[in-house]
């Protein structure tokens, strides 16, 4: 077994690999760019070495630097994680030439399967059903349009060396192909250093289901069940689960055996994933093979009990697989949510900056429920513009799908992040979506259920009363604390505090709050002025804690708490609302206050996210029509097109290509 390995990656996956290596008694070496000098993986590793400036092309993607660090630190093997160099045949060969071990498949398998175009050719040769498409070299955007016209719409334009949703576009008509082709090539070049793309038929209402495989160097290959990854946004996975609610045992076996056959055809010898696009009728087609560890590997680990990182290391060290296919058992259900640094209320635009507060839910394993949080950040750390926006992967496991979802929903409500915007409210809303809970999934789920994006909503019914009750309870605890400090209250007493008016936006809820032993009793006032039955809130919350956790009538509840004037901003089940708590006198005065109005930006186009100006598509004095491209901004390896919302004339251009802009920085101004 290796004594020391190098991890050629960063962020949560680097931290994840370090944890397994540490359990195995293996020392680790981290590499880092100048932007990651204070990163968590640097702190966790036994040794860390600087390899260059922030751009990945000058640090994490430079093979020679990785090899040199191995030589100077005595690392015997390299784990590439995912992304970066993980699917580069040249990297695996360079390590072998230097007498180092690549913790991944052999170079020939990477060549056959790692390239998306070559993998489809290999799959077709092996008799595997594939999606109709064009796998040759696409000369330019006009050639792309001709190909798409022949295949039939919609089509998917996809980077050959791609992954993680980067370098991918869907075109529904010929007019969208040229732009999609150019954007996909640019993203592919930026993310993978390879601008080749291919075009294939896009299956309508598809599901994305993938099979995890493991192969050793002795011809033993097994599959570890499937993962459902259909909840995607912009072709990037958002929520994954194992197993899939679609498959039955017969279909699972059929997909698994096909995946194993494909892996054996290329002598695959590591952890890998064979991805399929599946129809609602359980039909399926080979999509691609990822010759690396997947982002969503934790859900497979939790339902199988197998540490995939450990197995990759053992296989690379020459050990045989310790289990056969008949030994693989799927137990319970696991759900993973990807927590990203992006603002769901502003079209999921990237958010960068310092994590002023970062308090994930506690990792636990009790009462049949597991909560796991794979992360590469810490409170006080920085979210950089240079890399993927992932903050963490929150994973829960339970005896059933419903139990895993309930655990995930509660954990998301307890996930507190401040300093940047994040997608936790959106993830929480998804956990409570009836279609998600019913398992009626497709890759179009988010676009279909949120056609106008994710917007702030006013809670109604039971959810509104739950938020009001917690706000009143928090206000009551703060009041008790003030009275203790002022000497007005000693010990525990039963006393009624009178009515409170709780405002959720424009909705007003009247209630009565009082301390009753360890609980706080909330009685809502009905339309007739009478009190309803008391709700008992039990919690150990104390002022200053960012999350209120407790029970309401014995039902567990968690809410994120942020103080505001005369109240709190609470986040719960996808709702993020400002709640004011007034006495009746305060409420009467508040009703007379004028409402604040939002500032008008006039005719200015402001940068919606921190990012790099890739191009400006217009000139001063030019007339533009609604929908025309004005500029392209790149942030966190994704290119975002800014378009004109209405017809107009460009008066002034304030930004230039190559400039780095802050959020709300002026890009251009209309006349």
What distinguishing features does this structure have?
671 residues, alpha+beta, Rossmann fold, Dna Ligase, domain 1, D-amino Acid Aminotransferase, Chain A, domain 1, 5 domains, 9-stranded antiparallel sheet, 8-stranded antiparallel beta barrel, 17 helices, globular
Report the β-strand fraction as a percent range.
25-35%
Task: Please state how the strands of the largest beta sheet are arranged side by side.
Answer: 14-13-10-11-12-15-23-21-20
The helix-and-strand class reads alpha+beta
End-to-end C-alpha gap: 68 Å
Number of domain modules: 5
Assign an overall shape.
Answer: globular
According to CATH, the homologous superfamily of the largest domain is ATP-grasp fold, B domain
Top-tier CATH class of the largest domain: Alpha Beta
Q: Tally the beta strands.
A: 40
Overall radius of gyration: 27 Å
Number of helices: 17
Q: Which architecture of the largest domain per CATH?
A: 2-Layer Sandwich
What CATH calls the topology of the largest domain is D-amino Acid Aminotransferase, Chain A, domain 1
Q: How much helix, percentage-wise, in residues?
A: 25-40%
Give the rounded overall mean pLDDT. 92
Largest sheet features:
9 strands, antiparallel
Pick out the low-confidence regions: none
Structure description:
This protein is of the alpha+beta class. The chain folds into 5 domains: 4-103, 3-Layer(aba) Sandwich (Rossmann fold), CATH 3.40.50.20; 133-201, ATP-grasp fold, A domain (Dna Ligase, domain 1, 2-Layer Sandwich), CATH 3.30.1490; 207-449, 2-Layer Sandwich (D-amino Acid Aminotransferase, Chain A, domain 1); 461-590, Glycoprotein, Type 4 Pilin, CATH 3.30.700.30; 604-670, Beta Barrel (OB fold (Dihydrolipoamide Acetyltransferase, E2P)). It is 27% helix and 34% strand. It has 17 helices and 40 strands. The protein has a 9-stranded antiparallel sheet. It has an 8-stranded antiparallel beta barrel with strand order 25-26-27-28-29-30-31-32, surrounded by 4 helices. A hairpin with a 2-residue loop joins strand 7 and strand 8 (166-171). Helix 4 (89-97) packs antiparallel against helix 5 (107-114), helix 5 (107-114) crosses helix 6 (116-125) and helix 12 (401-413) runs antiparallel to helix 13. The longest helix is centred in the last third of the chain and has 26 residues, at 461-486. It is globular.
